[in-house]
Amino acid sequence: MEKVAVLGAGSWGTALAMVLHQNGHEVRLWTHDEDHAKRINKTHQNSDYLNNIQLPQDLVAYSDLTKAIDQVSAIVLVLPTKAIRPVCQQLKGVLTHQVTLIHGTKGIEPDTFKRVSEMIEEELPKDLYGEVVVLSGPSHAEEVSVFQPTTVSATSSDVAKSVHTQDLFMNERFRVYTNQDVLGVELGGALKNIIALGAGISDGLGYGDNAKAALVTRGLAEIARLGTAMGADPLTFVGLTGIGDLIVTSTSIHSRNWKTGHMLAKGESLEEILDKMGMVVEGVRTAKAAYQLAEERKIEMPITTGIYKILFEKADPREVVDQLMTRSKRPETDEVHHMLKKHYNDQ
Ligand SMILES: NC(=O)c1ccc[n+]([C@@H]2O[C@H](COP(=O)([O-])OP(=O)(O)OC[C@H]3O[C@@H](n4cnc5c(N)ncnc54)[C@H](O)[C@@H]3O)[C@@H](O)[C@H]2O)c1
Ligand SMILES: O=P(O)(O)OC[C@H](O)CO
């Protein structure tokens, strides 16, 4: 059994810490807020983020980073994208031994377009961890924390690291596959949040299942279009971290992105919603990053563009839907379909 530190005691960090604990590991759950750590250790609950979930007595919360990572074999970063750089900067001051470094964060940084593993590599010397592992897939904390069956993928260009991650997390309720396409997995995990905002908007406007199915399907087409243009494997987008995560985030009542879209369509302001949510809604910042990236690379991403305009330019959601429906006519298939077709023909 191993010692593992989970950095970030929000809903997902807590759920992942519970999985590691179930597997017999000594888990340290780190939060930057001393009072938060005290509350968790006193009540054995993390009610700020997960309602009515009892944590094991020996799953201990820490606010001292040095103590939390002492002699751990693995560190799992489960923070909002915005917090990745500052926490890695703190880690740089105190991490002195080699670890497997895993992250469960889904976002892209606006302006720089950096993915989470790239931000980690910019902030933390690689000799401490080698290659980063990404843990991603259709997985809501609310279900994982009550042991509902869940599948994810552990992705790294270093297969030994992804297998180590698979061994740490895998159990009869939490199935972990391995993958090597870090670029595709990180892009799929981040970009699906934008489409989930759109699904929430569509439901909030009172549109039906036809509209949501169209959003998810055409959303996947534009995610794959950007992803393959950047060099990702097109097959990744039809896997767990692509279509799988897109489905769960666009349809689940647990989704923070879907809920945000739903409230936006009902007329609440973005500021009010984010205040009320109390948890990170990654699709908002990522919509900005993806819109900028699509503009720079001249990639057609009409749904992402529409969501960006609703979020940042106060565009009317109904008008955005009308614009999407009346775009000039075109074939359904594009270069991504041709790449997939070629892949299957070559088999
Ligand atoms: N919640 C889920 O079901 C789920 C599932 C899969 C992936 N994710 C991803 O995991 C990441 C974290 O999501 P979450 O839902 O756990 O978020 P959350 O909002 O529930 O919790 C985030 C945690 O990070 C802490 N934090 C914020 N800023 C910080 C900083 N500067 N320094 C240190 N700590 C800081 C907060 O205090 C909080 O404890 C996101 O990228 C999300 O997309 C979430
Ligand atoms: O609740 P959301 O919308 O932040 O999505 C959480 C996860 O990414 C779902 O896999």
TrEMBL record:
Pathway: Membrane lipid metabolism; glycerophospholipid metabolism. It holds the Pfam family NAD_Gly3P_dh_C. GO terms for biological process: carbohydrate metabolic process; glycerol-3-phosphate biosynthetic process; glycerol-3-phosphate catabolic process; glycerophospholipid metabolic process; phospholipid biosynthetic process. NAD(+) binds at G8, A9, G10, S11, W12, G13, A141, R256. InterPro entries: 6-PGluconate_DH-like_C_sf, 6PGD_dom2, G3P_DH_NAD-dep, G3P_DH_NAD-dep_C, G3P_DH_NAD-dep_N, NAD(P)-bd_dom_sf. GO terms for cellular component: cytosol. Residues 3-159 form the Glycerol-3-phosphate dehydrogenase NAD-dependent N-terminal domain. It is an enzyme of class 1 (oxidoreductase). Residues 329-347 have a biased composition (Basic and acidic residues). GO terms for molecular function: glycerol-3-phosphate dehydrogenase (NAD+) activity; glycerol-3-phosphate dehydrogenase (NADP+) activity; NAD binding. It catalyses: sn-glycerol 3-phosphate + NADP(+) = dihydroxyacetone phosphate + NADPH + H(+); sn-glycerol 3-phosphate + NAD(+) = dihydroxyacetone phosphate + NADH + H(+). Sn-glycerol 3-phosphate binds at K106, G137, S139, K192, D245, S255, R256, N257. Its EC number is 1.1.1.94. Keywords: Cytoplasm, Lipid biosynthesis, Lipid metabolism, NAD, NADP, Nucleotide-binding, Oxidoreductase, Phospholipid biosynthesis, Phospholipid metabolism. The active site is at K192. Substrate binds at K106, R256, N257. NADPH binds at S11, W12, H32, Y49, K106, A141, R256, V280, E282. Residues 181-321 form the Glycerol-3-phosphate dehydrogenase NAD-dependent C-terminal domain. It is found in: Cytoplasm. Residues 328-347 are annotated as: Disordered. PANTHER family: GLYCEROL-3-PHOSPHATE DEHYDROGENASE (PTHR11728), GLYCEROL-3-PHOSPHATE DEHYDROGENASE [NAD(+)] 2, CHLOROPLASTIC (PTHR11728:SF1). Belongs to the NAD-dependent glycerol-3-phosphate dehydrogenase family. Catalyzes the reduction of the glycolytic intermediate dihydroxyacetone phosphate (DHAP) to sn-glycerol 3-phosphate (G3P), the key precursor for phospholipid synthesis. This is Glycerol-3-phosphate dehydrogenase [NAD(P)+]. It comes from Pelagirhabdus alkalitolerans. The lineage of its organism: Bacteria, Bacillati, Bacillota, Bacilli, Bacillales.
